[in-house]
Amino acid sequence: MLVHGTRTSSAIWQAQVAALRHGGHPTHAIDLPGHGSRSTERFTLEGALAAIDEAVDACPQPPLLVGLSLGGYASLAYARRHEAKLAGVVLAGCSTEIKGKPLHLYRRASTHVTRWLGTGQGTWHVVTDMLAALAGYSPLRDLRRLLLPVWVVNGRRDPLRLDERRYLRALPGVRLTVVPRAGHDVNSHAPAAFNRVLLDALHELAAHVPARAHA
């Protein structure tokens, strides 16, 4: 299951959906409130968690939850609350605490992604909603409490790698992949490398559980 970032939509995952389905993995990308098919709604963290929960409940097996940027933070918050419903989680482009200077970096990274993909025009209220929703949220606090397998994927040029090493210390066993020449939107800059991480994660999960996880 794939969860997009700020001011984009489920459409950013086309390369991942195609690759995963080709590999025999049922795959679903959702739209968060305020984005894509749900653009008329206002974004809240609780609304995002509800959207993820609805999609997870529709899966016949516990899925691998994959989140990019805002979707990564929402996926981590969801995993902390509903760990038993998931097989694992992949966190991309969200390796920093969102407070102080990182708030400005997040705003800049969000602008970069939407310009690159040509999406999100006229939706700056979503950024305001997102910043309000994440105010006070600590991804490191949630990460420390997880028992699930976790993969962290970042583009080497991503400005939101500030706490990457703190993430690794927070949860021993986290698998980190840093993709050369990729930026914040690592799944679009380097789809082959990103897809490889997802396929390897699914293969690893399948080796440890009777039934294969879904993305």
Strand content: 5-15%
Largest sheet: 6 strands, parallel
Mean pLDDT: 89
Parts with pLDDT < 50 across at least 5 consecutive residues: 113-122
Number of domains: 1
Radius of gyration: 15 Å
Give the helices and strands as they follow along the chain.
EHEHEHEHHHEHEHH
Q: Tell me, briefly, the overall form.
A: globular
What do we call the CATH topology? Rossmann fold
CATH top level assignment: Alpha Beta
DSSP strand count: 6
| Quaternary structure type | single chain
Main β-sheet, spatial strand arrangement = 2-1-3-4-5-6
- Helicity range of the residues? 40-55%
Class computed from helices, strands and strand pairing: alpha/beta
How many helices does DSSP assign? Answer: 9
What is the CATH-assigned architecture? Answer: 3-Layer(aba) Sandwich
Distinctive features:
alpha/beta; Rossmann fold; 6-stranded parallel beta sheet; 9 helices; globular
Please tell me about this protein's structure.
Helices cover 44% and strands 12% of the residues. With 215 residues, the protein is an alpha/beta fold. The chain has one domain (2-206): 3-Layer(aba) Sandwich (Rossmann fold). It has a 6-stranded parallel sheet, sandwiched between helices. α1 (14-22) packs across α9 (191-206) and α2 packs across α3 (70-81). It is globular. The termini are close together. The relative contact order is 0.19.
